[in-house]
Structures are given as structure tokens and as C-alpha cells.
Design goal:
9 helices, four-stranded antiparallel beta sheet, Rossmann fold, 336 residues, binds magnesium ion, binds adenosine-5'-triphosphate, eight-stranded mixed beta sheet
Amino acid sequence: MSKVILEVNELTTKYITRFREDIYAVDHVSLKVEDGKSIGIAGESGCGKSTLALSLMGYYFPPLHYSSGEIIVDGRNITGMNPDNVRKTILGNEISYIPQAAMNALNPTQKVIRFIEDVIQAHNPRVTRQEIYELARERFELLGLPADVLQKYSVELSGGMKQRTVIATSVILSPKVLIADEPSSALDVTSQKMVIKMILDLMEKGIIKSLIFITHELPLLYNVTDDIMVMYAGQIVERGSADEVVFDPIHPYSKALMGSIIVPEAGLRDVKLTAIPGTPPNLKNPPAGCRFAARCKFAMPECQAISVNLRDTGGGRTYRCIIPEEDLRKAYENES
Ligand SMILES: Nc1ncnc2c1ncn2[C@@H]1O[C@H](COP(=O)(O)OP(=O)(O)OP(=O)(O)O)[C@@H](O)[C@H]1O
Ligand SMILES: [Mg+2]
């Protein structure tokens, strides 16, 4: 097994609302990302993907609060580290996070090179502007971006170019882990492909060591990440290799998520399209048993009452369902 770059053990975090209600948006999540490996996190809107991203960086600002669990980055336990300290010492150079819709948040009155100066000088105040320019130019060219982008304002760039600029900027310090939160959503298909190719290049060219790619489109992760974790209502419901989860999902939610795609990719055209009925549960008051039971075609009466831990099928594959894997597979066969 190669070196583990990021390890998260049983992490639980919550939002505390103005009305003092607790919303556990990340519930006992564990994951390991090894050097050179990538992991995708998929799930519907509101299932906790972005909260997990913030939580696993130790980036807690109210209303988000740490509750329990452990985070280890490249052997260093950062659990309980002050969030300001996380910002100064972890973000940018150990872990880089590209927030959802980051490209729309760029300050339109600043040239691209100024964003890069901000990122670099926050960690190395003594680096000169000339040195930063040289580093940025080299890095942009390595990633197939024209160097003249550096002197442009964000409003002068197309959506796809803006997003690729955000990505190149966020990895300027060659962080060990990149967390990209829906980096290709809201882009046209051609720009989406270019953004994904660029993220894969970051791994291939050794700029980052490992990647966490968040999306609400499970099939998109096929050909992008090594592994996939499917998240539902704050919990991981399945984990496996990308191939396994996309082509042979075990959990009924993963299966349903595969069927809810709008534009099937080549190779996935045989997938039967169906919307998932209902909506995810309110996390202020999640159901006692399986959180997906109310929407699950295969649910049995006991599913509503019994909560299940992740079951290990061996070979790094886990799923959270009371129904045995063989019975689920038979049920899927009978359906098709
Ligand atoms: N600031 C907040 N205060 C209270 N609850 C919040 C806050 N932000 C998010 N939540 C709740 O936490 C849960 C998880 O939200 P999160 O944004 O992490 O989901 P997501 O999977 O990233 O969704 P999306 O696909 O829409 O980006 C949701 O139920 C949401 O209502
Ligand atoms: Mg999100």
C-alpha cells in the first residue's frame, strides 16, 4: 500500500442554527486517500458533499462545528487545530480547495496575476513579483493555458477559461491534496471536458499527489477518479472502485443515482433512466433507520427502524444496507 496522504476517521460535524438546532451534515465519515490516487464523492444536492470538504480540511467557522473524529494530513494530525491556523499552514500548500462556483466569485477588478500573488505571498511573503510571474507563467504553460491570461481581468475570460485559471491558481503551491467541489458543473460540455482533463493532468504531472472530486453526477466520475464514495444524508452509503460503483452499484441509492443521469456518456447508454422519487430527509431530524428507506424501492419494514453500519464486502468495497448484496443483485436483475 502506498503512503496515505489524507486520512479521515469517523468524522462528524454539525451546523448549529440560529434556533440552536443541530444539523449533522457529516455523520461518521471515514476515508483514506493514498499518494497518486483520486476519490470521487457523489450524491444529490444537500447530502453534505461541500460540508464534508470543509470538514476534512479542519475549516470550521460558525455555524459549522467539529463534533468528533480525526483528520490526518500526510501523517500530521490536524484534528482540533485552530481554523485560522489551518488557513495559514494547511490551506493552499497542504490541501487546496476549489469551492463550488469559485469562478463566479473572482474579483472582476483584479488581474489574474494578482490572485496568484495573493496566494503565494500569504505563505511566502518574501517572494518577489517577478519570481511569482515566472512561476505562474511556467505553471500556466505546463497546464496548456496561454501566459497572457495572467494579465487579464476575470471578466475578459470565458467560463471554461475562468475555471481553468481558478484551478491553476489554486494549485500554484503544489498542494498534496486538491479538493475540487463541482468544478465542471455549470460549464458547457466542451469546457467540462477541458476542466476534467486539466485536473487529471495535475495528477499526471505530479503537481498534486491526490485528488478529491465532488459532483452530483455519479457517472461523470467514471474515467476521472480511481474510487467513488456515494453520500446520502450526511453518510457514506457505498464505496468502491469507480468501475464497480458506476457499472455494478450495490446500494439502492447508488443504483438509483446511476439511473437519474440526464445525458448518458458513451459506454453508459444502456442505463435505464428514472428519477429518484421523493426528496432526501431533513437533517434536523433524520429518520431512525436507513436514511434512504422512504425512497427505496427495495425497502422492507425493518429498514425504517434499523440503522446499518457500512458492511465490508472485501477488496475495499463497502455498502450500508440491511439487505445482503446477493439479494440486491437478484432484485436488480428481476427489474431489468
Ligand atoms: N450554513 C448552514 N447552516 C445550516 N445548515 C446548512 C448550512 N449549509 C448547509 N447546511 C445544510 O447541510 C446539509 C448539507 O449541505 P451541503 O451544502 O454540504 O450539501 P451538498 O451535497 O454540497 O449540496 P449541493 O450539491 O447543493 O452543493 C444540507 O441539508 C444543508 O441544508
Ligand atoms: Mg455543495
